[in-house]
Amino acid sequence: MSKKQIQEEAKTSFERAVSVRRVTKVTKGGKRFAFSAFVISGDRQGKVGIAIGKGRDVSAAISKATAKASKSRISVPLYGTTVPYSVEGSHGACKVIIQSASKGTGIIAGGPVRAVMESIGVKDILTKSFGSSNNINVVKATLNALAKLRSAKHIAKLRGKTVQQVMRGNNVAAK
């Protein structure tokens, strides 16, 4: 990669450390401290990944998590600045509802869900999380919901129809 490509990728990429925890391992000789970082990484164009990294210091843990998250990105179909339709996802005791919103609404979401939405490039969205407020579970429930989204092109292919026929019959956004 050239220097210009790396700079452009840095502008479009989005990384956020959702949580950093100090963990302790008790040994015969005393206590050993290390850090665990949970990171969300996205390209602001419909791709997002999450990972946990562990290291002896905070910067090492964050850099490990960022590298893992960049490799494990999933693709999410978007409709303009929002999602095509409402979806629901869950993980453990956490449940997240994601609804598309009209232009100018903004990101109506809590901390972990907001970070995911910013990383995929969504600008208008309504969300609500229920149950557990654990950051990792909330993010995994959000990704579970986003993984359920399908583009109109994909749905048309599954049904053996054209995108226009699917659009007339359902409220699925085309892209």
What does this protein look like?
With 175 residues, the chain is of the alpha+beta class. The protein contains six helices and eight strands; from the N terminus they run H-E-E-E-H-E-E-E-E-H-E-H-H-H. The chain folds into two domains: 3-74, 2-Layer Sandwich (Double Stranded RNA Binding Domain), CATH 3.30.160; 76-169, Ribosomal Protein S5, domain 2 (2-Layer Sandwich), CATH 3.30.230.10. The mean pLDDT is 87.
Name a few traits of the molecule.
175 residues, Ribosomal Protein S5, domain 2, alpha+beta, Double Stranded RNA Binding Domain, 35% helix, 34% strand, elongated, four-stranded antiparallel beta sheet, four-stranded mixed beta sheet, 8 strands
Distance between the termini: 30 Å
Q: Return the domain count.
A: 2
Amount of helix: 25-40%
- Largest sheet data: 4 strands, antiparallel
Specify the number of helices.
6
Q: List the secondary-structure elements in sequence, H or E.
A: HEEEHEEEEHEHHH
Task: Give the C-level CATH assignment of the largest domain.
Answer: Alpha Beta
Q: How is the largest sheet built, in terms of strand order?
A: 1-2-3-4
Q: What do we call the CATH topology of the largest domain?
A: Ribosomal Protein S5, domain 2
- Spans where pLDDT lies below 50 across 5 or more residues: none
Q: Tell me the fraction of residues in β-strands, as a range.
A: 25-35%
